[in-house]
Design goal:
Layout (H helix, E strand, L loop, with lengths): L3 H51 L3 H18 L5 E6 L2 E5 L9 E2 L4 E2 L30 E12 L2 E11 L6 E9 H37 L1 H15 L15 H52 L4 H29 L10 E3 H12 L9 E5 L7 E3 L2 H17 L6 E9 L2 E8 L30 H11 L3 E6 L6 E6 L9 H12 L1
Parallel strand pairs: 9-11
Antiparallel strand pairs: 1-2, 1-7, 3-4, 5-6, 6-7, 8-10, 11-12, 12-14, 13-14
Helix pairs in contact: 1-2, 1-3, 5-6, 7-8, 7-10, 8-9, 8-10
């Protein structure tokens, strides 16, 4: 796979090369247009120079015409080809450069007028008469200079033509100057190659500079990669990415996020280690009880008084172990069960169903169990009914297990501050204020000497509440005795088919 430097260089250079090609094409087009315009201007200027020389007086024409031809041959590339025709008679120049079609060689007259050659305006925009600055020079011009394409010796040429009536005899003469097209192309091709060479040189230089610049810019990320690779080969006790103070913001953000992820992973690993140690410790106690009482059974037999007591203790230990395993499984599943954004259930129906199934469980014989719910229809909350039932069940079990003989347990469903709320209230010994937050920690018990328990019930309630966006808290009872455990669920707008949703909640809560 290509390196990041190569990908970034390609991502930058491809658009740059596209722009360079476009700019080169525009440059070549401008060179071609400028070269063609310049050559056409030279041709028109040359034909006007020869036309003025041919119309000179007899005393100077013999010297002026050769001088004009000599000047044209020096300023044109490579040689200017010309001809001056008087009717069918060649006065000067090349015979192959024949008069244009609109000139009648038999009579020496012009049969058609054509528009004069025009060029883009110059800065000064000097006014011209018949193509001449001096109006006197334009006297006698019948056909102002114009441009046309033709052939000379079988090769394409560009021809400038002007027809003038001579002052000395009143005859119309044709003055022509031609330039081979391939000479123009060779001249322009030289510039095209120069533009191409300059573009290739600039592109190569730009690739090297961009590659160096990107390498320099990615140096902090290369440092991070090197640190990670070193840590992979020789793992340190605690690894964190380090950057210099002048490192770019993006690299610092990446390093900070990576370090935060490492810290979170380390906390998770530490929590897993502690969880495993605590779970193994909690499971060791009932297993030890089972092992000891199995020895008692082997020694005294199940029919003896000690054997019967051992069987009762073994049953209690197995139940305790089963309860611990079920709570561990529930705690592990809190991170696996997904909850849809629009999931809703009837909180009152779930709570009522759970109280109905738990009211006859062991330990409730001497307690007064109460249930309160609104009478104005279902109370919908966001979340999953099975998880809500698990939360309410743990709070109910704690209220029963840690209550006093003859105490009361009240499960209350209400609507407060725009949120569906469940309250489980008891009048037992309660929980000290300093322990009300710590009891949500795994395996922590406020009264180790009290009734047996795993120390996971409230941890499961807190984990499930976080999964469903709910909030759980412990408060002292209204009378100052016992505990009021409250869960505020996330509210959800009323759905269209409420009776059907209520039926779903009751079915899943069972």
């Amino acid at each position: 796979m290509a390196s990041l430097r190569s990908r970034l260089t390609a991502a930058v250079m491809v658009p740059l090369l596209a722009l360079a090609v476009t700019f080169g094409g525009i440059t070549c087009w401008m060179v071609q247009r400028s070269g063609a315009t310049t050559s056409d201007r030279i041709l028109i200027g040359s034909v006007r120079l020869l036309s003025r020389a041919a119309d000179a007086g007899d005393d100077v024409r013999g010297h002026l015409l050769p001088l004009a031809v000599h000047l044209l041959q020096r300023r044109s590339a490579p040689v200017t080809h010309y001809s001056i025709w008087d009717g069918g008679t060649l006065i000067a120049g090349e015979r192959d450069l024949v008069p244009p079609p609109q000139y009648d060689a038999r009579t020496g007259r012009t049969t058609q007028r054509l528009p004069a050659a025009s060029f883009p305006r110059t800065f000064r925009n000097t006014p011209l008469t018949g193509g001449y600055v001096d109006p006197h020079d334009a006297e006698g011009v019948i056909q102002p200079g114009y441009l046309r394409d033709g052939t000379l010796r079988g090769k394409p040429v560009r021809i400038a033509t002007e027809i003038r009536r001579l002052h000395r005899n009143g005859r119309d003469v044709v003055v022509q100057v031609a330039d081979f097209v391939d000479d123009r192309w060779a001249y322009q091709q030289t510039y095209f190659l120069r533009v191409l060479g300059a573009g290739v040189l600039i592109a190569m230089t730009a690739v090297l500079l961009f590659y160096w610049a990107i390498t320099w810019g990615l140096a902090p990320f290369a440092s991070l990669t090197g640190q990670i690779e070193t840590a992979r080969r020789e793992p340190p006790p605690q690894f964190r990415l380090a950057l210099e103070e002048d490192a770019p913001r993006e690299a610092r953000l990446l390093a900070g996020s990576f370090n935060a992820l490492l810290a979170r992973t380390e906390r998770a690993v530490d929590s897993l280690k502690q969880f495993t140690a605590n779970a193994s410790h909690q499971m060791r106690t009932p297993l030890a009880v089972v092992r000891v009482h199995l020895d008692v059974l082997e020694r005294y037999g199940p029919a003896s008084a000690r054997g019967a007591a051992a069987l009762d203790d073994i049953g209690n230990a197995v139940l305790s172990l089963e309860r611990l395993l079920l709570q561990l499984i529930a705690l592990a599943r809190t991170e696996e069960l997904g909850i849809a954004e629009d999931a809703a259930f009837d909180l009152a129906a779930v709570a009522a169903d759970l109280v109905a199934t738990r009211i006859d469980q062991p330990g409730t014989e001497t307690l007064d169990i109460g249930f309160e719910a609104p009478e104005d229809g279902p109370l919908f909350a966001r979340g999953h009914p099975v998880l809500a039932a698990e939360m309410i069940g743990n709070l109910f079990d704690n209220a029963v297990r840690y209550n006093r003989p003859g105490g009361t347990v009240t499960v209350r469903v209400l609507h407060r501050s725009g949120h569906p709320r469940i309250e489980v209230e008891d009048d037992g010994p309660g929980i000290p204020a300093q322990d009300r937050e710590r009891v949500f920690e795994r395996f922590y018990r406020a009264r180790p000497s009290g009734p047996s328990g795993s120390g996971l019930g409230l941890s499961i309630v807190r984990a499930l509440a976080e999964r469903m966006g709910a909030e759980v808290r412990l408060e002292p009872g209204p009378t100052g005795r016992g505990v009021l455990a409250a869960i505020d669920f996330a509210a959800r707008p009323m759905i269209e088919d409420e009776p059907e949703a209520q039926q779903f909640a009751l079915a899943t809560a069972c």
